[in-house]
From TrEMBL, chain A:
Coiled coil: none
Domain 2Fe-2S ferredoxin-type, residue spans: 1-94
A Pfam entry, by short name: Fer2
One of the record's GO molecular function terms: 2 iron, 2 sulfur cluster binding
PROSITE patterns xref list: 2FE2S_FER_1, 2FE2S_FER_2
Origin: domain of life: Bacteria
Name listed for the protein in its UniProt record: Ferredoxin
From TrEMBL, chain B:
Family matches, as Gene3D superfamilies: 2,3-Dihydroxybiphenyl 1,2-Dioxygenase, domain 1
Protein name: Metapyrocatechase
Subunit composition and interactions: Homotetramer.
InterPro entries linked: Catechol_2-3_dOase, Glyas_Bleomycin-R_OHBP_Dase, Glyas_Fos-R_dOase_dom, VOC_core, Xdiol_ring_cleave_dOase_1/2, XylE-like_N
Pfam families: Diox-like_N, Glyoxalase
Family: Belongs to the extradiol ring-cleavage dioxygenase family.
């Protein structure tokens, strides 16, 4: 079953194929919108809030997704697989210590 | 100076989210040798083929990715005795860990670096060899000993956190490392990264500025040749291992490199090459006007993810 993933605010859509996580589907579709980091649930840069839809999630680092985040449906795009069409808001931020100093 | 005092990075304990997935990555794909496991503590102990010590990588299942500790091997027990008061005089609390608390290991000293990382020193660890023996050893292990990414040994690590100048001072003043290279802000001259060596390698440990303490940037493994880096890159592609930076050369250290992530998002590097460092080699300085060539010298493009994605 294929599902459509919609990124709110960015007005970006892509398709998720069975068994694939949201981030790899975005990368596979050649789209940009969610930050790509470690792709293993460890670094937290691809954090999204699931506004609508159902998903399953694999283990994510508690440093970035604690119980409270799970309740708010704030999860890592590299670790969630859709079980319906999804609407997401991108909330991941990455610290830029060096780049910021360059500006 | 003959190589005494701190010898090398001898053990890195990495937190993983799923031990089975970590085993597939580090043992099946990368080709590290699993020497021991502890199902109760959810740990796997591994070594690279050409290391004589019992293990160099410990994988521990946890609910957060990242680094548990780094441990450096020192020349002998007297070195530990001599270093303890010097570390305390620097201003760090040192705890003593009895022999045997860490498996196959003699006593350890433990303290926290100004960057927030847990570091240990030990003088003794059981040796199990590299399969060749020590008398008329030959040069080639049996078929199958060298496999996967053909990793020869654990080489160095890069740690992210605040106070990296203090870390540099600790390693230089207390541990007798040399500052081989440094990246600084072009205008403020603030340190952004410090590369330190206790050997003839370009670095044995490095620090990069990060707002949060105790962050893990990467652990790095030594390969025989640049051809082996390309071979590893082909394996990484075949098994769809997430790549951070494809094959390239570092300006800093001159290593031929590829960066990729384990299944929990911890960054790994395999590399070959680099120059020979001696204690009288001057410190090399790069600044932010040349971040591209400093990071990756074949395309001279700085990667944002390389300095921002950490566990």
């Amino acid at each position: 079953m294929r599902y459509r993933v919609h990124l709110e605010e960015l007005e970006l859509d892509f398709t998720c194929h069975p068994g694939q996580n949201v981030l790899e589907c975005m990368i596979g579709a050649g789209k940009k919108g969610i930050q790509v980091g470690c792709r293993g649930g460890g670094c937290g840069v691809c954090k999204v809030e699931v506004l609508e839809g159902e998903f399953t999630a694999r283990a994510m680092s508690k440093a970035h997704v604690d119980e409270e985040s799970l309740v708010r449906r704030q999860v890592l795009a590299c670790c969630i697989t859709p079980r319906s069409d999804l609407s997401l808001k991108v909330i991941g931020k990455i610290a830029k210590p060096i780049q910021r100093r360059c500006q | 100076m003959a190589l005494r005092g701190i010898l090398r990075l001898g053990e890195v304990c990495i937190r993983v989210l799923d031990l089975a997935a970590a085993r597939t990555h580090y043992v099946d794909r990368m080709g590290l040798i699993e020497v021991m496991s502890d199902e109760e503590d959810r740990k796997i102990y591994c070594k690279a083929w050409d290391e004589h010590d019992h293990h160099s990588i410990v994988l521990r299942e946890a609910d957060e990715a990242g680094l548990d500790y780094v441990a450096f091997k020192v020349y002998d027990d007297q070195t530990l005795t001599d270093l303890e008061p010097r570390i305390q005089a620097f201003g760090l609390d040192v705890s003593r860990i009895d022999a045997g608390v860490y498996p196959k290991s003699g006593r350890r000293l433990e303290f926290f670096l100004p960057s927030g990382h847990r570091m240990q020193l030990y003088a003794e660890k059981a040796q199990i060899g590299n399969t060749l023996g020590t008398r008329n050893p030959g040069v080639m292990p049996d078929e199958g000993v060298i496999r996967g990414f053909r990793i020869n040994r654990l080489d160095h690590c890069l740690l992210g956190g605040p106070n990296i100048d203090e870390c540099g001072r600790l390693f230089q003043e207390v541990f007798d490392f040399d500052l081989s290279e440094r990246i600084e802000d072009e205008e403020s001259r603030d340190s952004l990264a410090m590369f330190l060596t206790c050997s003839t390698k370009p670095h044995d440990v490095a620090f990069v500025i990060q707002p949060e303490p105790g962050r893990f940037h990467h652990v790095s493994f030594l390969l025989e040749s640049a051809t082996d880096v390309i071979h590893a890159a082909d394996m990484i592609g075949k098994y769809r291992i997430p790549v951070d930076v494809g094959p390239n050369r570092h300006g800093v250290t001159r290593g031929n490199t590829i960066y990729y992530f384990d299944p929990s998002g911890n960054r790994n590097e395999v590399f070959s090459g680099g120059y020979v460092h001696y204690p009288d080699t001057p410190t090399l300085t790069w600044d932010t006007s040349q971040m591209g060539p400093a990071q990756f010298s074949q395309d001279n493009i700085a990667r944002e993810s390389f300095l921002t994605v950490v566990t």
